[in-house]
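Lecture 7 notes: from sequence to structure.

We start with a single chain of 184 residues. Read the sequence below before looking at the structure.
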Amino acid sequence: MSSPAASSPPSSTSAPHSSRLVGLPHGTQIGTPSAAVAGASRILALPVSRAYVGLNDLAIDRGRTNIFEAVTDGTVTEVRDACTVPFGFGGLTSPDAGDPIPCRLLIGEMARVSTDFSFLRRSFHRDARNRPLEVIVPRLLDALAAARTRTPDAIRRDHDELVAAVDKMTTAAEASLLDSRGVA
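Now the structure, written as tokens:
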């Protein structure tokens, strides 16, 4: 797992480790490696202030090529279901952007699992280039609000579209990895 920035809340991978972090000034944030996901219910039994599933760290820990698999394989939903504190995952960019997974699909999934917060993706600066934040941020907030008002059929369609996009991305990444290794 990459080391957190100085202003980031501490991360944890187990309940015993979390119990040592409780009460620190910035609160406690659940780390994202597999051990933290597996122990989420035990960690969340502690007085934590929020929980966040960092998709990149989790994919690295699992040895996966696609950071979005945890969104579609039930991992994010499982952790969310264990939460009684504000919960977040992934990252956002401009609602009309997002590559390889469109931001609108992540917004839909965030609404589907009742996410309370997220962070801006690394690609946000690229996607926001030459566009004022005063325009992009309200659009992002409007997209989040609209996603929360979708019909059950629209939620299902958006989720299915996200699953298909993640599966396509995973297949392409695995094929590229095999090709780079000279495996036919």
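The chain has one domain: 11-172. Keep this in mind for problem set 3.
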